[in-house]
Specification:
heterotrimer; A alpha/beta; B mainly alpha; C mainly alpha; A: alpha/beta; Rossmann fold; six-stranded mixed sheet; two-stranded antiparallel ribbon; 9 helices; globular; B: about 0% strand
């Protein structure tokens, strides 16, 4: 799709296999976040996006979220004037559940993301890393099957990074969730992704198993040459 | 505690003080109730959902005129007219909101103001049925509950408006902890995160808008039944519009008691200024000048309103009571406005 | 008068009025474009401009056309001061509501102070019937024609200013991307003040010109403010060239529907135009900026 005169994502074709963890890397401005925005319905481009056989590219963002695609934001978004628990509960209120169940699930999610000590703290008062975790916890309330993580490690403490990696692997293994992880953080991506997609200037330049892609000369050039 | 005392006082006032000896207090209180209610209704859309409207006078006027026209022309009871008025107001709000609520907030403010002003001009020119610039005046009839008029006995009006106010506060109180309330506030805080949470943002903005409009229209109904006269320059006026939103701006946007607090301060102040200066000096409209100054002060000095700024820190008692009036999740009152928007996650990567 | 002539008359009068709309709206749209601020006080400055022309003429016999030399300068300074003293406090990182209410409060203040001092009664600068020309069956009055011509001249100068001068380009740059402008070393705060100053100056010119043929009351503000909203949105909020086209278009629409539907429905016509623009093409004729979402 294009922004003004700039093509952010150009003729990209890719498949993501269910239950896998795929990493999406590429230099700045490569269009990675735009891709996430396109999939999650924030942007609308030309082209077709299928999720489990259903075409979602013309759907609105909230419908896509309910279909089972969750995403986080590079700069974490949240409801600052509400508590962490409230934040996590918001998506859950649309589910057909008792309020108590939703509260309980919210508390569990906060615990899973190490935020339970901040349950009644205002989201606006959280640190950057905590906001990222809250972003993830909130996303998880809808129990998405496909999870798009946009720079989850960016600006996060090393210990928290490990926690995020741990959680991701756990969710993938135990619940079969599929992940597309956008990141600049190569070491962490290595821990997570068996397959990598590399973008540069809006196009796909490499794809495949992590080890192979790492050695791909086009990829190396993209990172160094830019 | 303080609230209970205040409530008791309000309930008892007309009985203890004979209205004829203290008409000013009596009428001012009714106006306080009216604008506390109106401001509360506005607060639902602007404070909780974050969509500022400067056109609520339009819904107020629609409420008043619908009932007035149905009554004077067709003899329809105001109680029925009320339902029709509310429906019309709801549809009007949807008509205005549908194109504009999906855009930046500035557009919504502009179109609401435009809508209100255009309605005013239209009604000035609408002579058949609506009386044009001269407005509509009721024939005074004897006390009649069915006709929602109580002739010289003003007491029922007092209690009706007070009841409306209390009910509206209850509505807001329940709203805050309800699904809708959460959704509204989420929309106010971050629309994209809200959409990513599976919530249809535009739908709930419209719900909030319609709800606010309906409540506002009901107050318009009360107004015409109380004053027995309306004209376009009264109901669709800047004066009314200011009194609808200023109490909330002063009291605390997005809080429960903010609008009421603001109303009880600003309305008496305005009335005193208006009456004193117009009778003593023949100066009209000074109260609006005062309101203008208050607005500027609130904007620059106290954007969170009284509940958010003053009562947050002061004496525990008052602070507690009023902060319990804060929106869900906020121990202290006040609105966290959206900070200067960063180019949302569209660039980079 | 035969039907077509009546219609044509309406259109011509409408377009002439459109000149005034241009002057009002360019200021409004620029203030929005540079500062993201809706100036609700814009109409009251128009009103002040009108009264300036009146008092200068009434008290000292200065013709409005002469006062055009110094009134805009005065209003430029007023705009600058107001921005620096008041508006600046809420423009960056303020609460959205604060931004709305500060100019609203200013409007209340100005309009009602005017009511107190100058009363409701309409005034006019020129007494008696204006000089009227008959051009092929269409009647136009001298003041309106003069106003229109002056508007055209000013518009050309303004366009040249915005596109050829450093200051003008700086303003455009600030409007498009504030952060980049700052990084490049522009004094963004001064740009804000400049935008407001120019906007207020322009609307004061509109006021002076309007005073030559339109009744002067303290309440004109809101009426023209709404029109300015429609014009600015039609042209694309923030885009001054759009406002210029928009002004003429709205003038035309007003003139046209004023005849077709009757004068009392003119306002309904542009309410619908307003709603239609927002529904169909919210960025207006020439707008490009991102406008969706809160």
């Amino acid at each position: 799709m294009k922004f003004g005169g700039l093509t952010a994502v150009n003729n990209l074709t890719l498949d993501i296999e269910e239950n896998s963890i795929v990493g999406l890397i590429g230099p700045n401005g490569a269009g990675k976040t735009t891709l996430i925005n396109l999939i999650s319905g924030i942007f609308r481009g030309q082209g077709r996006i299928f999720f489990r056989g259903e075409r979602i590219d013309r759907m609105r963002a909230h419908v896509i979220a309910r279909k089972g695609i969750g995403r986080t934001f590079q700069i974490p978004r949240g409801f600052g004037a509400m508590t962490c628990l409230d934040n996590v509960m918001v998506p859950g209120l649309g589910l057909r559940k008792d309020r108590d169940d939703i509260v309980k699930r919210g508390e569990e999610l906060l615990k899973f993301f190490l935020l339970d000590h901040l349950t009644y703290e205002l989201a606006a008062n959280l640190s950057g890393g905590q906001k990222k975790l809250l972003d993830m916890a909130r996303m998880m309330m809808l129990d998405p099957d496909l999870i798009l993580l946009d720079e989850p490690f960016h600006g996060v403490h090393p210990e928290l990074k490990n926690k995020i990696v741990e959680n991701t692997l756990q969710l993938n293994k135990e619940q079969g969730k599929t992940f597309l992880v956008v990141s600049h953080d190569i070491p962490e991506i290595m821990k997570l992704a068996k397959r990598l997609i590399v973008m540069n200037a809006g196009s796909l330049i490499a794809e495949g198993r992590t080890e192979e892609v790492r050695r791909d000369p086009k990829v190396i050039q993209a990172y160094l040459g830019v | 505690m303080i609230l209970l005392i205040a409530l008791a006082f309000l309930l008892v006032e007309p009985l203890v003080w004979n209205p004829y000896y203290n008409t000013f207090l009596f009428n001012t209180l009714i106006l306080c109730f009216l604008f506390a209610y109106l401001s509360g209704a506005w607060n639902i859309l602007a404070g909780f959902t974050g969509q500022t409207s400067f056109g609520h006078a339009a819904f107020f006027g629609i409420g008043a005129y619908t009932v007035a026209m149905l009554w004077t022309v067709l003899g329809v009871s105001p109680w029925i007219g009320m339902i029709i008025a509310a429906t019309i107001a709801a549809f009007a709000s949807l008509a205005v909101g549908l194109p504009s609520l999906r855009l930046k907030k500035s557009y919504f403010v502009m179109i609401t103001l435009g809508f209100s002003e255009i309605l005013r001009i239209t009604f000035i020119q609408w002579h058949e049925f609506a009386g044009g610039a001269g407005g509509i005046a009721y024939h005074v009839i004897p006390y009649s509950l069915e006709a929602f008029q109580f002739n010289t006995d003003r007491t029922p009006y007092y209690y009706i408006m007070l009841a409306m106010l209390i009910l509206s506060l209850l509505v807001v109180y329940k709203l805050r902890r309800s699904k809708w309330g959460y959704y509204f506030m989420a929309i106010r805080e971050d629309e994209i995160a809200t959409a990513a949470s599976g919530i249809n943002v535009i739908k709930y903005k419209l719900i909030s808008c319609a709800l606010s409009a309906i409540l506002t229209a009901l107050a318009g109904v009360f107004y015409v039944q109380f004053f027995l006269f309306i004209d376009p320059d009264t109901v669709f006026s800047l004066d009314v519009m200011t009194k609808i939103f200023l109490p909330t701006a002063l009291g605390g946007l997005g809080t429960l008691m903010g609008p009421a607090l603001g109303a009880f301060i600003l309305i008496p102040l305005g009335e005193i200024v208006r009456i004193y200066f117009s009778t003593t000096f023949g100066i009209q409209g000074l109260h609006l000048v005062v309101y203008g100054i208050v607005l500027i002060l609130v904007a620059t000095v106290m954007p969170k309103g009284l509940v958010g700024t003053v009562f947050k820190r002061s004496k525990r008692r008052i602070g507690d009571i009023l902060s319990r009036s804060a929106p869900v999740g906020i121990p202290q009152g006040g609105l966290r406005g959206l900070p200067r928007p960063m180019s949302s996650s569209q660039r980079g990567s | 008068m035969p039907e077509e002539t009546l219609l044509l008359q309406g259109i011509v009068s409408g377009i002439l009025m459109g000149g005034i709309y241009i002057l009002i709206s360019v200021g409004l749209t620029m203030i929005y474009g540079v500062m993201d601020l809706v100036n609700f006080a814009h109409g009251s400055f128009l009103m002040l401009g009108m009264y300036s022309a009146f008092w200068l003429s009434f008290l000292w016999g200065i013709s409005p056309y002469l006062s055009l030399i110094f009134v805009p300068i005065l209003f430029f300074l007023i705009g600058w001061v107001i921005q620096k003293a008041l508006v600046q406090r809420v423009v960056e990182g303020g609460y959205m509501l604060s931004q709305f209410i500060i100019t609203f409060g200013l409007w209340l203040l100005i309009e009602n102070t005017a009511v107190i001092f100058w009363h409701h009664d309409p005034r006019s600068v020129f007494q008696g019937a204006p000089l009227t020309f008959d051009i092929g069956g269409i009647f136009v009055t001298l003041p309106m024609v003069l106003a229109f011509c002056i508007t055209l001249v000013l518009s050309v100068f303004f366009h040249l200013f915005m596109t050829r001068s450093w200051t003008g380009l700086a303003l455009s740059a600030t409007a498009q991307n504030r952060d980049s402008a700052e990084i490049v070393g522009m004094n963004v705060r001064d740009m804000f003040a400049l935008a407001m100053a120019i906007g207020i100056a322009m609307v004061s010119v509109a006021g002076v010109l309007l005073a030559t043929f339109f009744p002067i009351t303290p309440y004109v503000g809101l009426y023209f403010l709404v029109i300015a909203f429609v014009v600015a949105v039609l042209g694309g909020l923030g885009n001054y060239a759009g406002a210029m086209f928009g002004g003429l278009i709205i003038g035309f629409i007003e003139g046209f529907f004023g005849v077709v539907l009757g004068p009392q429905f003119k306002q309904i016509a542009y309410l619908f135009v307003f709603m239609a623009i927002l529904a169909v093409r919210p960025q207006g004729l020439m707008g490009r900026r991102e406008i969706r979402g809160g």
